[in-house]
# Entry
Amino acid sequence: MIEPRRRRTEPPFRELFDIDVLRAELCALADGMFSGDKPASEIELRSAVAKRLKLAYAEGHKVAESWLMADGSGRRCAERLSRLQDEILQLVHELVVKYLYPSDNPSTAERMAIVAVGGYGRGLMAPGSDTDILFLLPYKQTAWGESVAESILYVLWDMGLKVGHATRSVDECIRQARGDMTIRTSVLEARLLLGEVALFDELMRRFDAEVVEGTAAEFVAAKLAEREERNKRAGQSRYLVEPNVKDGKGGLRDLHTLFWIAKYVYRVRETRDLVAKGVFTPEEATLFRRCESFLWSVRCHLHFLAGKAEERLSFDLQREMAERLGYVSHPGLKDVERFMKHYFLMAKDVGDLTAIVSSALEERHDKPVPRLNRMIARLRRSPNRKLKESPDFIVDHDRINVADAGAFERDPVNLIRIFYYAGRKGLAFHPDAMRLATRSLRLIDAGVRDNPEANRLFLDILTARDTAEIVLRRMNETGVLGRFVPDFGKIVAMMQFNMYHSYTVDEHLIRAIGVLAEIERGDRPEYGIANEIIHQIKNRQLIYVAVFLHDIAKGRPEDHSVAGARVARKLCPRFGLSAADTETVAWLIEQHLVMSTIAQSRDLSDRKTIENFGAVVQSLERMRLLLILTTADIRAVGPGVWNNWKSQLLRTLYYETEPVVTGGFSESNRNQRVARAQAEFRAAMLGGTSGASSGWEPEALERYIDRLYPSYWLRADLAHKVEHANFILAAEAEGRALATASRSDPKRGITELTVFAPDHPKLLAVIAGACAAAGANIVDAQISTTTDGRALDTISLTRAFEQDSDEIRRADRIASSIEKSLSGEIRLPEVVARKIPKRPRAFTVEPEVTLNNSWSNRHTVVEVAGLDRPGLLYGVTQTLSRLNLNIASAHVATFGERVVDVFYVTDLMGAKIIGAARHSAIRRALLQVLDADDETNAGAASDASPAA
# Structure
């Protein structure tokens, strides 16, 4: 039987307050209120006690925070806060039974034990944790017990505490624990606070004999399934850049799950006891305590900093958290990035510990053996057989394992070979093999790294069509990948402190390899042209190596693209690439942001844009490789970043540039593509597919097609073309000069607002201002005009509500503001100044304004880059208007917190902007908008930016 936890009588550390002094003060308070001719009521006493205890509780938290800042021990802080709660409950109970419901000679039914359960039962509480307590009764509730429990709860509630409570008999506890796994786990962690010891001991004895005995496999399966479901909700990857410290993968709850399983299956009280059971080595038990201590430090600091039970390490808290925890900046890495890297390394260690316990459970047959880890089993193999290709490995229930503990010592290349065979044969990894690999990393030295066989195997792993992502991730988790490729090791667990990337750098690179494999298999139509051209490239190994290395130099003081090219020139020959192939990979890495930047922020109908891009890529093969790399890079940034707009823009840039790099610009080629796009649209509309309206006659459709410029047909995807046509048809049928439409896109986390209106220079500013006034953030914009002087603008707004109906209502309000602004009913500057939301800045982005006359033959290109905020686009477009600049086209996109807005402008005479003084004046005016602080510049403006 597991020895039950009891209330500690002697604290192992200083108290947060003197309980004896507080007890005397409260007793004096109660004596005074109950003396005299008119004694106080129960409610008055409870209120007075709660008020004084609330003050003591707050003072105790302040002391705990100060000690946490001084000694840095999060676990110690959690113990102190739990002890503080113990003392509060003891005082409340003493006052209730002494002054309100005394029972000098209690009957058998009037016995009660007050038990801490859940996290409180473990004796660990974060500043914002709930207080979970069980009022344990012998067999049924009595009026006395009900009154005592109710009075204690009222005091705790009046103190403002979040209390989870239950009142049950021992029989009820046992019955409910059998049927409810949550209650079972809660009782498993029970700790006696005060009251009847015999009653508590009876509960623990019966729980052990009637609930725990013989149900280990059931409990383990339930807890692991619960963990899997929790990870799905929080995000499967432990490398999300805004992790949940409590419930995220690799967070405290995963450690709690290990603790529950250990206590239930192995009948131990502390995780260190698992060493004697042979589950952990002493080093692994130390690692468990180190992970637990670190995560408790993070969680306690997070609660104190946020002033509430905040579990998510959001961007606006990460920087201050790093400062509280004592991290400092190093060259190439900010303090916050060093803190988050440490966090992700700890999350990885938690994952390793989970695998170790899972392996031990399988050996005991308390956990079902998985057939494959995300791989498809072809045949059910024998439980244990030798791998015919190598005597150093065996296959154990479809999982590759080492034949003996000396497999890696005999031949260190086996540390690479085991992953090669796993990928080639579709085998999952046995936890024991992965554990041994992690403990054998010292064997991977310069000799292994330079070994031709090891590098050949690694290149095969990297370029495998079906298993590369899975196998590389396991190599990374064991530490083998970072040891074999030390430059990769430098970016393991490295986060980028921005809102654009959803994953750490190493996770981003591994996911990009997975995307690349999907492109090659052709099973994801949304990747567009990349699916078509990947089979036209001459050497598929080049693109896999380039994708794997493209961000490998992140975190260095210099430009990561330039530094990454240098790393590639060092590594590619080691991988077996020729000198020419090495140079191609280095070029791809150095230029890996160019295609995305040009596609999203340049006018693709401007011949100069195409000529400039053609001068960069120079050959069709390089452009194909660059497009595939760009697609994989953007898609692997995070959910919702890749979309049909970006796919269509890359397609347009590719086909516009193709004739340039193959022998000269060809108008006929472009005309053919426009004609194909129009034919596709025509077939959709008249064929009634893709949501097309039946209201179109062939003649009317041809007139509509002629109204839109060629650039529109090349830039927009078919779904938007159909939507736009139906929208314009309905608007003109109703005789509306100005029309708006909206649609929600939950998958991308945006809402699209389409505006059809008479074109004029300030239209974009009006749209941006209306969005700013509504607090809506513009993250993308597609600006088009028709041959008859109409504007067709589609604006993408950050989603604000979960429900589509709420989003559409918000979009309708913005559309109404646009109409009223254009009709003169409202003055936008005043509305924006009054309604623009003020937001704290978690990030800093150096503002930049660039004016360039060489990027276009007819226009001056103005590029504005800086920190995104509501109202930024409005401020920029208003400023351009005040400077008497005519916006011919605008290209708006956001990349997390960074915006890059590009405007093709002329003066009022239609000429380029000439003269250094004029350029300087424009630059100063726009920098003022970018530099304006949210708190002081209400009239400033919203959004936009380029690649992964």
